[in-house]
Amino acid sequence: MKLIASLTSPFARKVRVVLAEKKIDCPVEVDIPWDADSRVHQFNPLGKVPVLLLDDGHSLYDSRVIVEYLDSISPVARLFPQERRRQIEARRWEALADGICDAAATIVLERKRPAEQQSSEWIARQQDKIERGLAALSHDLGERTWCCDDGYGIADISVGCCLGYLDLRFAGFDWRASHANLAQLAHKLQQRPSFADTVPPQ
């Protein structure tokens, strides 16, 4: 197997964290989809990372498909709950965290456009999504140790990568001030080797 990824992508980081937690050795090929020489579209017609290249030549995308596949091929540190209702709960956490990342990435791309072409209304719309998403994550977490009652798993990994991406791209956005429980979760996750070893470059 080989993972094609950008080191700043929160979705690729989620896969890298899962690889580490599952103790799966998988080389990473760095590819930035926006670069002129990117080969990502050869493996994912949508031209997005991450992409997991399998030994039989097939490719898997996006991150949600990849992490579920990785969890299924090794019994080490199961990250998805086994009971169906708990699986749905964990996937809901993952979907919300990924959605916040999508909104954040949209703002990043919009701000790369020439100033006269940028839409402040569009940016504000995405910012609202981020803030509503964080409020929902904080409310659902409450005083629990982990996102799901089953313990550490894909929900926590997804939320941790989401919060890390906000720190990377929006250094002036103090989400910790309003969501102390998410700040505590982020701090706890940062102590894990899987997170410490995948901190995105500045």
Structure description:
- With 202 residues, this protein is mostly helical.
- It has nine helices and four strands, in the order E-H-E-H-E-E-H-H-H-H-H-H-H.
- The chain has helices spanning 10-21, 40-43, 63-73, 84-112, 120-141, 154-169, 175-178, 180-190, 193-196; strands at 2-5, 28-30, 51-53, 59-60.
- Strands 2-1-3-4 form a four-stranded mixed sheet.
- Helix 1 (10-21) runs parallel beside helix 3 (63-73).
- The protein starts with a strand and ends in a 6-residue tail after the last helix.
- In the CATH hierarchy, the architecture of the largest domain is Up-down Bundle
Distance between the termini: 27 Å
Question: How many helical elements?
Answer: 9
Number of domains: 2
Strand count, sense and barrel status of the largest sheet are: 4 strands, mixed
- Secondary structure class reads mainly alpha
- Roughly what percent helix? 55-70%
Mean pLDDT: 97
Contiguous low-pLDDT stretches (5 residues minimum) are none
Strand order of the largest sheet: 2-1-3-4
Can you count the beta strands? 4
Fold-level CATH name of the largest domain: Glutathione S-transferase Yfyf (Class Pi), Chain A, domain 2
Radius of gyration: 17 Å
What is the succession of H and E elements? EHEHEEHHHHHHH
Shape: globular
The CATH class assignment of the largest domain is Mainly Alpha
Strand content: 5-15%
